Amino acid sequence: MNWFKKLNTAFKKSSSKITDNISQIFTKKKLDEESLEAFEDMLIESDMGITTAQKISQNLKKTRFGKDVSEEEIHNFLASEIESIVKKREKHLVLDFNNTPQVILMVGVNGSGKTTSIAKLCHTWKDQGKSILIAAADTFRAAAIDQLSTWADRLSIPIYKKSPGADAAGIVYEAYQQAKKDNTDILIIDTAGRLQNNSSLMAELEKISRVLKKLDPNLPHQSLLVLDGTTGQNALNQVQEFQKTVPITGLIMTKLDGTAKGGILVQIADQIDIPIYAIGVGESLEDLNQFDAKSYAESLVSTNN
Ligand SMILES: Nc1nc2c(ncn2[C@@H]2O[C@H](COP(=O)(O)OP(=O)(O)OP(=O)(O)O)[C@@H](O)[C@H]2O)c(=O)[nH]1
Ligand SMILES: [Mg+2]
Predict the structure, then answer these.
(1) Ligand 1 neighbour 164 (Cβ under 6 A)
(2) Chain mean pLDDT for the chain
(3) Pairing outcome for strands 186-191 and 222-228
(4) Quick one: which ligand is closest to 107's CA?
(5) How far, in Å, from the CA of 195 to the mean position of ligand 2?
(6) Quick one: average pLDDT of 285-304?
(7) Residue 198 carries which DSSP code?
(8) Stretch 142-169: mean pLDDT, rounded?
(9) Is the predicted pLDDT of residue 2 greater than 50, yes or no?
(10) Which of 35, 89, 173, 229 is most enclosed, with most CB atoms within 10 A?
């Protein structure tokens, strides 16, 4: 299955909802205040947030108010608005293999998809022939190390781990030494899920970051925040809060296959200047896609699922 098709399938829920709503809203031919308001509400309901929804509906008003509009026109308009918003954040995760190990720190709230995304990224890098070490720095959740070890075994990638409860920053320190010694291309660090308002766990993350900076002020090369696409509005707050502890260099948004909303990505792209590197559209190793603005926009508003 090519990835565009896959994305279309993945967004079936979000897009069919938007599609249904568009056909319900624009029953009259003329674009009036009432249909504009319903259009804006629909965008808010799909998690695009008030500011972004208003901006899009104002743009629609500016060009089409009082005119006859077809459903197809609205679809095309919305797809192009979404594309222009998210296009700004469409970037590829580029690693500098002249400077190894490239150190990638994965952070996010509980269950957002950090560990699974690590496995998916490693799968891609392995295909590219890169050597990898995974650091199991989630020593907080009891089963976390086993979960990561299972993925590492499946991928035949070495993992640096200790017992549950061990000091996470210490593991990161030692894993870096190991990666350096072995000339490893990539060191990727799995961290415990933490709510952005949990000060003691945020302090632990700060310590991990401090330890890395002591090893080399340029570390980590990437701090990727993994967001659960089904979380809704809280995702925006997660970005803002994590950003205060570790400067986030990129976002991965997961579970876009499981949401009837999906618009949160549009809102984040509109309001936060951080690249979106990848999206998760399922639980298997192949289900991580590079973020592509055009395909995302078209799939979100697609009429032919
Ligand atoms: N449908 C779907 N499920 C996903 C995706 N990414 C992760 N999951 C699932 O979400 C659940 C949590 O994923 P994990 O990778 O364990 O999340 P985590 O952030 O490491 O969780 P903690 O370590 O507990 O904070 C698992 O059941 C994954 O299979 C995705 O893109 N789509
Ligand atoms: Mg995990």
Answers:
(1) no
(2) 91
(3) unpaired
(4) 1
(5) 13
(6) 87
(7) -
(8) 97
(9) no
(10) 229
Residue 53 neighbours by CB distance under 10 Å: 23
Q: If you measure from the C-alpha of residue 260 to the centroid of ligand 1, how many angstroms do you get, rounded to a whole number?
A: 18
Rounded mean pLDDT of 56-76? 92
Residue 193: CB within 6 Å of ligand 1?
yes
CB 227 within 8 Å of CB 267? no
158-199 pLDDT, tens digit per residue, is 999 999 999 999 999 999 999 999 999 999 999 999 998 999
Cα(275)–Cα(91) distance, integer angstroms: 6
Q: What is the pLDDT of residue 298?
A: 87
| Residue 228 alpha carbon to ligand 1 centre in Å | 8
Residue 3 pLDDT exceeds 70: no
Q: Is 35 close to ligand 1, i.e. is its CB under 6 Å away?
A: no
Side chain identity, residue 132: I
* Averaged pLDDT, 241-263: 89
CB 236 within 8 A of CB 49: yes
Q: Which of 116, 201, 238, 264, when mutated, tests ligand 1's pocket best, judged by the most ligand atoms within 8 Å of its CB?
A: 116
Output the CA 115–ligand 1 centroid distance in Å.
7
Q: Is 229 in the pocket of ligand 1 (CB under 6 A)?
A: no
Residue 251 has φ and ψ, to the nearest 5°, of -120, 145
Ligand 1 within 6 A of 138 CB?
Answer: yes
Cα 111 to middle of ligand 1, angstroms = 5
> CB-based contacts of 208: which residues, under 8 Å, 6+ apart?
105, 137, 168, 169, 172, 189, 191
Q: What order do you get walking across the sheet with 102-107 strand by strand?
A: 159-160, 132-137, 186-191, 102-107, 222-228, 250-254, 276-280, 288-290
- pLDDT of amino acid 261: 66
pTM assigned to the model: 0.93
Residue 110 alpha carbon, nearest atom of ligand 1:
25
Residues with Cβ < 8 Å from 215, sequence gap 6 or more?
A: 173, 176
